[in-house]
Amino acid sequence: MSRYGSHRVAVTGIGIVSPVGLTRETSWNAVLEGRSGIAPITLFDPEDCSCRIAGEVKNFDPTAPLPALLHPRGQTQPPLVQAVSQKDMKRMDRFIHLALVAGLEAYSDSGLDSVRDRVAPEDIGINIGVGMGGLPGIEDTHDTYRDKGIRRISPFFIPQVIPNLAAGQLSILLDTRNINTCSVSACASSAHSIGESFRAIQRGEAKVMLAGGAEAVVCALGIGGFASMRALSTRNDEPAKASRPFDSSRDGFVMGEGSAVLVLEELEFARARGARIYAEIAGYGATADAYHITAPLEDGAGGYRAMKLALEDAELQPESISYVNAHGTSTPLGDVQEALAVKRLFPDSTGLHVSSTKSMTGHLLGAAGAIEAAFSILAIRDSVVPPTINLDSLDPKCAETGLDFTAHTSVRKPVTASMSNSFGFGGTNVSLVFKKAGAP
What we know:
Peroxisomal Thiolase, Chain A, domain 1; two-stranded antiparallel ribbon; 16 strands
C-alpha cells in the first residue's frame, strides 16, 4: 500500500485537442505516423518577430455539436449539446475553449455519463493546469483600454483570462462539486495537476478527478516574450523540421497550444461500474532544482530525483519501464540534462525507448504534461512507442548516454509501464508513471 493512501487509481477517459488533431485518436495517430503540426503562425501577424512558426490548433470550433449528447445532471435535465455556446465564445479565452472540448471528450470517453444518476457530484473533482492563462485576452483588452478608455473594458475580462477558469467552467458544465482547482507551475502545470489528482483519489478525498491542462498563448506577447529570451527556434523556412529534440542542430523550442484531459477514478469504483481502463497511474514524483529561474541543474539532478521518486512511488524497478516520454523541448541545455538524468536512473537501458512527442506537437507549455501523459498511456494501450522526428544527427552528449531516442519512426513493442517527464521554469520537475491495468 502506498504511504499516501490505500486507493489505486485508474485512467478511464482521455480527451485531446492539439496541433496534430482535434480528438484523442486523430492526435495519437498523427504522432505515431510522425506528422508535424508546426506551421507558419496565423493567429496574429508575426512579421516583425524572429520566430514566425508555432503549433496552432487548426480548424477548431468549440461551438460544434458534440458527437453524442451528454447528461451530467441526469436524464431529466437538458443535455449538453456543445462545449461552448455562441453567446459564451467571447466570455472565455481560447485556452478555456480548448479545455472544455478536451474535457468533454474525456468525460464522454470514460462512460461516466451513463452512470451519473448513481455518482454524487461531490465525489467528482477537477484540476486543470494552466501555465499562462488568457494572454491573448489580456493583449486584446489592453488594446481596447488604450484606444477607447477604461470604461470600455469588458465585464467578462477577468473571468475570461484567469487560469483557474478552465477548471471552473468545466466544473459548471459537468456539475462536479469536489475539489475545483488549477495547478500553475509553468511547463509542469498539467503534470502537477495529474499528480495531485492522483493523490486526492489515493487518500480517498475523491472518487473521480478530471485532470489535465490547457494553454493558448500563440499571440504577440507570448511568442514575442519567449523570442526575446532567445528560447524559440527561428527555423522559419522549415517549420515542420524546427522542433528537433536531442538533435545537434536544434536551436530552441517551438510554441504549441492545445489541451488534454484525463479521467482518473478509484480503481475499484471503476471496476464496479464496468469501466474500460486504459492504464493505472502508479507513481508521481515532484522536486525543485533550487538553482535558476530558467536553466536546469547541469547534471539534471532535479529531474533525476523526480523520476526516482515516481518509480519508488509506483513500487517498480527501472527495468519495468518500457518507454519514457521525455520533456525534450529541443533546447540546447535541457535536452542534454534530461538525457543524463534518464541514463542515471536507467544505467542498463537495454530495451528502453525514449522519445519526445514535442518534435511533432511543439511545446504546449502548461498543457505539455497532460498531452504527453496521454501519449504515454496510449503507448501502453497500443503497444507502440511514438517517435522523435527530425532527429537526424544525435547530439554527441546525448549519444554518449547510449539511450535509444526512437528516431523518425514509431516502434512496435510491448509497453507494460511508461514514464512521462515535465520540467518548468523556476526549477520545477514532475515525473508520472503509468502501468498496464492489472499489472502487479
